[in-house]
Every structure is written in C-alpha cells, then in structure tokens.
Amino acid sequence: MTMGITCSMLLILTLCAFLLPTAHPLVSEVKALAVFKNSLQDPNKVLQTWDPTVPGLQNPCGWVGVRCNNQYKVQTVNLIYNKLSGKLVPELGLLSDLEYLLLYGNMISGTIPAELVFEEEEEEEEEEEEEEEEEEEEEEEEYEPEAEADTDQEEEEALPSDEPPPSTPDDPPVPDPLFGPS
C-alpha cells in the first residue's frame, strides 16, 4: 500500500515538473546568460548560481541578479557593484524580453553589441519623431492667423495720428513757438 502511494506521489511530482513553466526555461536564454557569464571575471563569485548543470538551477529566474516576467522570460539583469569585469556579448540579444541590463559599478568595457539594440525601439522612436514633426507643423499653421493679425495691427499703427511725425536730418528746422526760429 505504501508503495502504491509513493509511486502515485512520484508520478504526480514528475508530471508537475513537466507542466510547470519554471521547469523548462528557454534554452536560448540560458545559453545567452551562460555565454555572458563566461565573458566576465567574477572575483566575488556572484555568478556561481548561473550554472544550469546544477540541480535546481536550470531556470535562470532563480539566478542571482536575474528577474523574470510572468512568462518566465528574463526581464531584468541587475549586477550593479559586483566588481565584474569583461565585455558584453552579442548573445544577450537572445533575451527577447530584456528591459533592464543594470551593470554600473563594474568594469564592463567595449562596445554595445548591435544585437542589444532592438528594432522595435528604433521604430517607436522614429514614429515618435514623426508625430513630433507633425505636431510642430500643426502648431505653425495655428500661429499663421495670429501673424496676420499682428500685421493688421502694424498697419493700424502706421495710420496718421494727431502727433507730428519725428523729424529726420533732411527736414528743415521747425521754429520753436517759445523761442522763435533757431
């Protein structure tokens, strides 16, 4: 009887392991993080949990500095102030849901791999720039009637008034009513 219960429990646990998304992380994400780890020098052994060959550490969502979204995909890698040194690797571009790669306070050098620049962001930036240009054009069109109104005011100001116009050097001298001709 005990053997039957034990077998049933084992079967249930095995099925759960296959059904849970945490049991099967995306291979590309594990590979990307493993390649990144191998490109770094880690004197404080902060990345020792980044080893998918160790039982219980197959899922990167449980690794130090790694945070996943509700689909169990890597969303944040936070390794600030860990005395890491090395370079970024193109494989980090395989982390399709990566939003934050926090590495300041380390000695990471080199260029940012092109694979880390996501095209969706570039397209969104281009769309935002186009929208801003359209808004500026609309604003300019809105201001044009006001500019015409200013011109009308200038014309009104140019109409003759009761005051005499200012004299110019070519004008003959005007006699002063109190002191006579100058």
Give the SSE map:
Blueprint: H1 2-19, H2 27-38, E1 40-41, E2 66-68, E3 74-78, E4 85-87, E5 100-102, E6 107-109, H3 119-158
Parallel strand pairs: 3-5, 4-6
Antiparallel strand pairs: 1-4, 2-3
Keywords:
single chain; 182 residues; three-stranded mixed β-sheet; disordered N terminus
Please tell me about this protein's structure:
Strand 2 and strand 3 (74-78) form a beta hairpin. Residues 2-25 have low confidence and may be disordered. The chain is elongated and about 110 Å long. The protein has three helices and six strands, in the order H-H-E-E-E-E-E-E-H. With 182 residues, it is of the alpha/beta class. The strands form two sheets. Strands 1-4-6 form a three-stranded mixed sheet. It has a three-stranded mixed sheet with strand order 2-3-5, with no helix packed on it. The protein has helices at residues 2-19, 27-38, 119-158, and strands spanning 40-41, 66-68, 74-78, 85-87, 100-102, 107-109.
Runs in which pLDDT lies below 50 for 5 or more consecutive residues are 2-25
- Give the DSSP E fraction (strand runs of 2 or more residues): 5-15%
Write down the Rg: 37 Å
Shape type = elongated
Helix-strand string: HHEEEEEEH
The residue-averaged pLDDT reads 76
Range of helix content: 25-40%
Query: How far from one another are the termini?
Result: 134 Å
Specify the structural class. Answer: alpha/beta
- H/I helix tally: 3
How many β-strand runs?
A: 6
Report strand order across the widest sheet. Answer: 1-4-6
Biggest pleated sheet: 3 strands, mixed
